[in-house]
Every structure is written in C-alpha cells, then in structure tokens.
Write a structure and sequence with these properties.
Elements lengths: L1 H9 L4 H29 L4 H8 L3 H17 L4 H20 L1
Helix pairs in contact: 2-3, 2-4, 2-5, 4-5
Amino acid sequence: MLAMIRHLWAGDVSLARTFWEFAVVYGLALNVAATGAALGMASAGQPGWLCLAVHMLPVPFMTFVLVAVWRSAARYTGRKLWAELARPLAVLWALLLILL
C-alpha cells in the first residue's frame, strides 16, 4: 500500500491507471460516500459545520490524486494529447465531485 502511494506520488503509475482508477473511480466512490454521510448527518440534525467537514473529507485524497495525475502526465510517452487533456480534466472532475 505504501509502495503504491509512493509510486503514485512520483508519477510512476501509468497515466491511464492514475486517471481512470484513482481519480475517476476511487474519487467518485469516496465523494459519494462522504456526500451521503454528510446528507445523512444533516437530516439527523447535526450542525452544518460538521456536515460540511464530512463532505470535504475527500479533498486531501483528490489533491493527492491531482498531483499524481500531473506527474504521471509529465512522464507519459504516448500521444501528447492524452497527457495534455488528463490534467485539466482531472482538475475539472475533482471540482465537480467536491461541488456536487
């Protein structure tokens, strides 16, 4: 597990895996879980600040994954277009997940 985190951070994991698996799939799952928990807490009458804090729990993960995508794109040896698209799309995806 720690080795994978180090490889992601260094950009050693393939761009396709970093983007699709970690940013899209795991990011979506984590954000859906956090949003569901925050909505459940809000419906149970918990304070708004606490619900917002729970909703924002995925932000460190998404920030880590954005750095991983950025670094992986820098090492990508395929068509340059995919590396150029991966960066802004990963940022857009992270923002959409946090805001929705």
